[in-house]
Amino acid sequence: MPQLIRPALPTDAAAIGQIRVAAWQAAYTHFMPADYLAALDPAANRESLRLKLENLSPRFYLALIEEAQEVAGFYLLGTPRFECPSHTAELWALNIAPHAWRKGIGKRLVMDAIASARRFSYQNIVLWCIAGNLGARQLYEQCGFRVNGQQKTDSQLTGHPLHEVCYALILHF
To answer: Within its chain, how far is the Cα of 92 from the centroid?
Structure first.
């Protein structure tokens, strides 16, 4: 089935919210409290996201993949949310609709994120991944990312400790 990767548009905000919630509820049941996941709202921050999608840039770039003219997943690449070397991008998010898992969509999106980072003249990409999310970790490693030794445990998001590891990829031009 043909798949198209393209920059997100403001009109995609609702679909992005739905995919984010569905992906989190399906993938994070072992890592986040059930009440937190059940309370996720696809409409949360929709207007804020819509406004950001009007001004995509290397500092905030969201691309999505369509399958049969329906949004099946997305990635968000932008300025790191933590201290990093200059010319570094952070892959903030990679979310795939659960019905589209295991079809190569994640790999296509990660490789597009890498190509976008190069196009934006970044020299490195970093990302944080839940330590126990072995499927995601395997995907990132297949795409060339390596654990860089940074780790964090934070309960701010969910009220429950979430252990994450940092991955990095040096982009060669």
So the answer is: 5
Sign of the alpha-carbon dihedral angle for 7, 21, 102, 77:
positive
The alpha carbon dihedral of 95, 100, 102, 103 has a sign of negative
CB 93 within 8 A of CB 103: no
In which element (H, E) is residue 46 found?
A: helix 46-53
Percent of the residues in the chain that have a pLDDT greater than 70, as a whole number: 98
Judge whether 117 and 171 are in contact, CB under 8 Å.
Answer: yes
Mean pLDDT confidence for 6-14: 97
Predicted local confidence at residue 1, as pLDDT:
56
Instruction: Find out whether 132 and 163 touch, Cβ atoms under 8 Å.
Output: yes
- Which pLDDT tens digit goes with each residue over 11-20? 999 999 999 9
Overall pTM > 0.90? yes
Give whole-number Cα distances, 110 to 59, 83, 101, in Å: 17, 22, 14
Token digits for 46?
């929709």
Tokens of residue 2, six digits: 């043909």
Residue 150's region, left for phi above 0, alpha for psi from -120 to 50, else beta, is beta
